Amino acid sequence: MGKIKLLSEALASQVAAGEVVERPASVVKELVENSIDAGSTNIEIRIQRGGISLIRVTDDGSGMNRDDALMCLERNATSKIKTKEDLAAIHTLGFRGEAIPSIASVSKFRLTTREPDSLTGTEIIINGGKVVSVKDCGEPPGTQIEVRSLFYNLPARRKFLRTENTEYSHLEQVIKTQAIAHENIRFSLVRNDRLAFQLPATSSLRERIGGLVGNDLAGRLLEIEPYEHKGVVVRGLIGPPGMGRSDRRQQLSFLNGRPVEAAIITRALREGYHTALMKGQYPVTFLFLETDPTAVDVNVHPAKREVRFHDGFGVQDAIIGAVQATLRERMTRPVSGVGLTGSTYEKPAVASEPSVIQENLIPEAEQRSLRNDWGDLTKPPEPAKESPRLFTEAERERFETNREVDTEPGSVTDPNLPDVLEEQAPSEEKPKASDYRLMGVLGKLYVLLEGKEGLVLMDQHAAHERVLFEEMKRRMEAEGVPSQRLLTPIMVDLPPQDFNLIEKNLETLNKLGLSAEPFGGNTLKIDSLPCFLKSDDPESFLQAVIDEIRSSSDRMSELRLGEDMIATTVCRHAVKANDPLHDKELQKLLEDTLACDMPYCCPHGRPTLIQINYAELERKFGRRT
User: Fold this and answer.
1) Domain range summary for the chain, segments of one domain joined by +
2) pTM attached to this predicted model
């Protein structure tokens, strides 16, 4: 008798369930996607013990008749696709016809459904893949699926489930992700008979996000105006420079309404933010991509987690362009200050002024070092102009008078206060140095400025880093990087793939200050290195260059490869904390910072300017609720 045998239908279903149903969150994902595909406007999820004991998903979608209800329990039965052409252009979230039978095979399963124009509904009960009963029932239009005792018939799988709280956190994340993707649907989650959250339908993505993560964070996000490139439309909301997280939990991407994961999206976001985010942190993004369904393959994984793009670099360039355009055009004022306390405030001691005004912000010794690598980037400061008055004398007198009015804590601010005390919508016009009045220096590092919307603090070190970084970058792109020839050339043996990559980019490497040429086989001869390279291990530098080239795209600047080195260089040469600067120098630093392409963060992603508006100050002092 042969060794190979056909598996029983029940066993085959349980094996297949291992690919689709990993944990309670997987069940919720599949059931909620089916509800969305059914045109539901109201979806309720009830769970107990993190979904291990009970999952019940109820919707008001199109429902099913008895024949369809029975057919949906058969493997490879679906209403989403009919031909192989349909598989190449998926418009729905579900299409494989595996989820329902897989779930029913590893749980105690109950399905009730009714079409809107039917008098009666259908109830089907299944235990471990075996049909127990099929009968008529009275149910509201829509579908309700109840999953109890998940993996009760597979003890080996059940013991790998985590604690109730862990399973709940995964399940909650799935629901929130779907809620963000479909803000026009009402979602509610009930945990152990208590309402966890309820999200009404809305036409605003920002409002939906605010209901999930808080209005404070949602209000700080920058909106991406629809951006199209090579057939890919990008829209959504992204965090401003400096708003990062230690993990990707709030880095969400959607393709044609489907939550997706793809390494190419992660790389594009990293490149789009570039120097606007600290290393090791991930941006807060709610990114929506729209493209022709025929240009993407969603049939990669049974759980539909991953997708493949036919033109990956086109998608990457679209995301990079959308993010960079948004950061450049939408960041028209300093980031808002957060985490302030209502503690007592004392007037800061202003840093003492030097007896002689420095001609440059960089000391002479460091100027010589910087000139050796990059040439003279510094210029004497221009004569400071008299700062314009932000208010008329009448407004200022009225402002000071109202400031002295004693109000009860928690009371509403006097309605006669000038408009500058109210929260103002961000101006689209880029601010100028003349919009701010220099007030002093706090802790010999933070420059205090008065603006039209409140108090602004400037980190003099971070601001000077940004100024030097952009100046060095412009010079590098225009003139190339100064290089230093080696007394003895370095021979580096590379794998064939890396050698081919370097050979194709020799022109770019020469402009970067790295002179190299093939020397037979897969050996590379290096004759000179960039002057700014302080490492005594050029091979490590070369490997870093190879890694950058491998992950680069068409939109990346050809000299992007040297920017990390520039950032390191300017950090050494920028003004430091405790370096006293004259008012004219501070004014010049502010002007140069605001003239930068990305003025609100340093090359390492830290903020350069932080704003605390009048409304926030009023709340801290109890003059506003």
Assistant:
1) 9-199, 205-331, 364-467+579-620, 481-558
2) 0.73
